[in-house]
Design goal:
Elements lengths: L9 E5 L4 H12 L3 E5 L13 H12 L4 E4 L6 H15 L4 E4 L14 H29 L2 E6 L2 H4 L6 H21 L4 E9 L13 H10 L8 H8 L10 E5 L2 E4 L17 H12 L9 H4 L6
Parallel strand pairs: 1-2, 1-4, 2-3, 4-5, 5-6, 6-7
Antiparallel strand pairs: 7-8
Length: 305
Amino acid sequence: MSKDLLAGKVALVTGAGRGVGRGIALELAAAGAKVVVNDIGATTSGEGQDLSPAQEVVAEIAAAGGEAVVDTNSVADWDEAHAMVQTAIDSFGRIDIVVNNAGILRDTIFHKMSREEFEAVINVNLNGVFYVSRAAAPHFKEQSGGSYIHITSSSGLIGNFGQANYAAAKLGVAALSKSIAMDMQRFNVRSNAVAPWAWTRMVDTIPAETEEQKKRVEGLKKLVPEKIAPFVAALASDAASGVTGQIFGVRNNEIYLFSQSRPVRTAHTSDGWTPASVIERVFPMFQNDFYPLHRSGDVFTWEPV
């Protein structure tokens, strides 16, 4: 890869110590960016702290001739999110790219999910995206440019069992990304969302009890997290200056552009609707276009290539 692609750019990657975030941090550095490697080293459920994953990524970047620093602030705290952006400013003088990748899981079936399980995931996976993005916004505005890349998920875009908290957060990320794109367009700032398919320690928490589940997990194990990074590097570059407000997916060697919500059917009456007329006319009219309760695996049925 040419180091000219992101030469002179400074990137902040959250959750960059392992998995998809690690691959993105290494790829951005290989493309010439200076990278703030943010990771508190928590478990998949957001507990504990281990600085070694982030330190190892920084060491790997340095060994390859790049520049990077460790940041251990939490995305789930407003002040710490601002502190991690300040780390970029203090270390490298600017910030050009924010990759909101940090996330946790607290998978529980909805009717058994506790308030703490819901709020913990929202705080990291959705609030954290807002906090970090908001912290970078004044810098992007002042320099008339910047690129946000937010990691969403097919669990939110399509759906999955036992992930009401995670799905709500990740669909919220897609909506937040679109709003950022609209509000920041006047300042030449772009915002896009990317849904990755990759075998990571978070995906490793998926239960595999039935034969169907075991087959799905075996398929997921083929998905290499490093495959996500080239697309993110391209999206972060000036060559993607016309790309904003979009939702993409990356699965091994496949790249997707997702649709966004638009009306698919309409019903109209000149007399106004009553509950009875809605039941009699609208529900039957719309029935064939109702979306089934698909999970992500029901939609992406083919083997990754």
